[in-house]
Design a protein that fits this description.
Strand content: under 5%
Oligomer: single chain
Order of helices and strands: HHHHHHHHHHHHHHHHHH
Bound molecules: phenylalanine
Shape: globular
Helix content: over 70%
Structural class: mainly alpha
Distance between the termini: 57 Å
Radius of gyration: 21 Å
Length: 446
C-alpha cells in the first residue's frame, strides 16, 4: 500500500479510524430506535429476513458505489458527482445536502430526548410515568434546548476536523457502545419470562415475507441504517488516502451495523416480553421506545433499573452523536469545497441553520414524522436509485475504481451487474411503495 500525499482536505489517520467513523455513522437511532419499531410494524422476524436480503442486494452494492465515488474523486458529494459525471449531476449532490439537512434536523431532536432521559436517570431517579414524561419533554422549551445543545456538540466535533474531530470521537466511543449493547442483551437473557421475546424476534410469519410493503420498509431501513443515499459514506471515503480493499471494508462496516441491530433486538424484545409490556410494542409511534423501555426499566426498579436507564440512553446518545457527525459532515464538506468557506465557519453556520430547521420538530411531533418519512425514507431511496444509475451507466470505469486495492477485478465485475440490473428495479419498487406510504402518512396528519 502506498500512501498518497496528505491532502489539505484532511484524511483519516488509520484504517481502523476510517472503519470506526463509518461504523459510527451507520450505528445510531436506526439500530436501536427505528429497527425494533420497524420490526414490530412489519411482521417481526419476517422483516428481519427481508432486511438481511435488502442489505445484501441493495445496501452493500450501494455502499461500495459510494465508497468508489468518494475515494476515486477525493471530493465532497457535489464535486465528486461533477468529477465523474459532469455538471448536470450536481442536482443529485444537492439532493444529498437537502437530505442531510432534513434528516439531521429531526435526528437531533430525538437525540435531544436521549440527553433529557439520561439526565433524568442520572440526577432524578427512575421514570415513573413514561407516557407523561414523553409528553412533557418531547416537545417544548426543553426539547428545543436539548436540540441546540446536541447540535453545538456535533458542530464542535465536525469543526475539529476529520482526524482530530470525527475519527478521534468514533475510535473512543464505538467500542464502548458495543460493550454496552452486548452487556444489556446478556442481562435481558437472564430475566425470567424473556423467552417469548426471542420467539417474536426470531420466528418469522412467512405470510409477511411476500408483502411488498414489508419489502419496501426493509429496503428503507437498510438505507437508513447503513447511512446510504445521501453521500455520507461517499464523503467519508473521500478522506481515504490509501488504496484500501473497499469491498472488504464495506463488508466489515455493514456486518458490524447489522450485528448491532441484531443484538439490539436481542436486548429490546426479551426485555419487553419479560416485563409483560408486549402489548405496547405494536404501538409503533415515534415515541414507542421512549415510553415502553423506561416502563420496563422502572419495573425492574431500584438501583438496577436506574442504572440500566443511564447506560441504555447514554449508549444510544453515543450512537446518535457519531451518526449526526456524518450527516453534518456532508453539508459542511460541501460548503467548504463549493462555497470556499473554512471548516469552522461552515460547521457553525450550517450547524445553526440545521438547528433552526429542527425547531418545528421540537414543537410539533407531526413535523418530525413528516421529515422522517420524506427525507428518511423517500429521499434516501431516490438518492440510492440515482447512485446506482450513475455508477452503472454514467461513471467511467467504476469496475477499475472499486478494484483498486484488490488483487483482481473479478468481484468488481459481478458488483457492477448487480448495480445495473438488480438494484434499480428493486429500488423503483421500494420507492413506489414508500411514496404511497408517505402520502398516507401526510394525509393522516392533515
Ligand atoms: N445510519 C444512521 C442510523 O442508523 C442514520 C443516518 C442516515 C446517518 C443517513 C447518516 C446518513 O442512525
Amino acid at each position: 500500500m502506498s500512501a498518497a500525499p496528505p491532502s489539505s482536505r484532511g484524511s483519516w489517520g488509520s484504517q481502523f479510524g476510517f472503519i470506526m467513523a463509518a461504523v459510527g455513522s451507520a450505528i445510531g437511532l436506526g439500530n436501536m430506535w427505528r429497527f425494533p419499531y420497524q420490526m414490530a410494524e412489519n411482521g417481526g422476524a419476517a422483516f428481519l429476513i427481508l432486511y438481511l436480503g435488502m442489505v445484501l442486494l441493495v445496501g452493500l452494492p450501494i455502499l461500495f458505489a459510494e465508497f468508489a465515488i468518494g475515494r476515486g474523486s477525493g471530493k465532497s458529494p457535489i464535486d465528486a458527482l461533477i468529477h465523474f459525471g459532469g455538471e448536470k449531476w450536481k442536482v443529485l449532490g444537492m439532493l444529498f445536502v437537502v437530505s442531510g439537512f432534513l434528516i439531521l434536523a429531526y435526528y437531533a431532536v430525538i437525540s435531544g430526548w436521549l440527553m433529557t432521559y439520561t439526565y433524568i436517570y442520572l440526577f432524578e431517579g427512575s421514570i415513573g410515568d413514561p407516557g407523561g414524561t414523553f409528553e412533557a419533554y418531547s416537545t417544548g422549551p426543553i426539547a428545543i434546548f436539548t436540540l441546540l445543545l446536541f447540535m453545538v456538540m456535533t458542530l464542535g466535533i465536525v469543526a475539529g476536523g476529520v482526524e482530530k474531530g470525527i475519527e478521534r470521537t468514533s475510535v473512543w466511543l464505538m467500542p464502548i457502545l458495543f460493550i454496552v449493547v452486548a452487556g444489556m442483551a446478556i442481562y435481558a437473557a437472564f430475566l425470567s419470562g424473556s423467552g417469548p421475546g426471542y420467539t417474536y424476534f426470531l420466528q418469522p410469519d412467512f405470510g409477511d415475507l411476500l408483502s411488498l410493503d414489508v419489502l419496501a420498509s426493509a429496503a428503507g431501513q437498510a438505507f437508513f441504517s447503513l447511512s446510504l443515499g445521501m453521500g455520507a459514506m461517499l464523503t467519508y471515503a473521500s478522506y481515504l488516502q490509501r488504496k484500501e480493499n473497499l469491498p472488504k471494508t464495506g463488508l466489515q462496516v455493514a456486518g458490524i451495523d447489522v450485528g448491532v441491530s441484531f443484538v439490539a433486538g436481542l436486548m429490546v424484545f426479551p426485555l419487553i416480553f419479560a416485563l409483560g409490556l408486549q402489548g405496547q410494542v405494536g404501538e409503533s409511534t415515534v415515541g414507542a421506545l421512549f415510553i415502553t423501555l423506561p416502563q420496563a426499566f422502572s419495573e425492574i426498579g431500584g438501583f438496577t433499573g436506574r442504572f440500566i436507564g443511564i447506560v441504555f440512553f447514554s449508549a444510544l446518545f453515543v450512537g446518535a452523536l457519531t451518526s449526526a457527525i456524518s450527516l453534518l459532515e456532508v453539508v459542511v464538506s460541501t460548503a467548504v469545497d463549493t462555497l470556499k468557506w473554512t471548516r469552522k465557519q461552515a460547521s457553525l453556520v450550517m450547524g445553526l441553520a440545521i438547528t433552526a430547521v429542527g425547531i418545528p420538530c421540537a414543537i410539533n411531533l407531526n413535523v418530525l414524522t413528516i421529515y422522517d418519512t420524506i427525507a428518511g425514507e423517500v429521499f434516501l431511496i431516490i438518492g440510492g436509485l440515482f447512485i446506482a444509475i450513475f455508477v452503472g451507466w454514467v461513471m467511467k470505469d467504476p469496475v477499475g475504481e472499486l478494484a483498486k486495492g484488490m488483487k483482481s477485478d473479478r468481484f468488481s465485475l459481478q458488483w457492477i451487474k448487480v448495480i445495473r440490473y438488480v438494484v434499480p428495479p428493486l429500488l423503483i419498487m421500494a420507492l413506489a411503495v414508500q411514496v404511497m406510504k408517505t402520502i398516507r402518512v401526510i394525509a393522516g396528519i392533515f
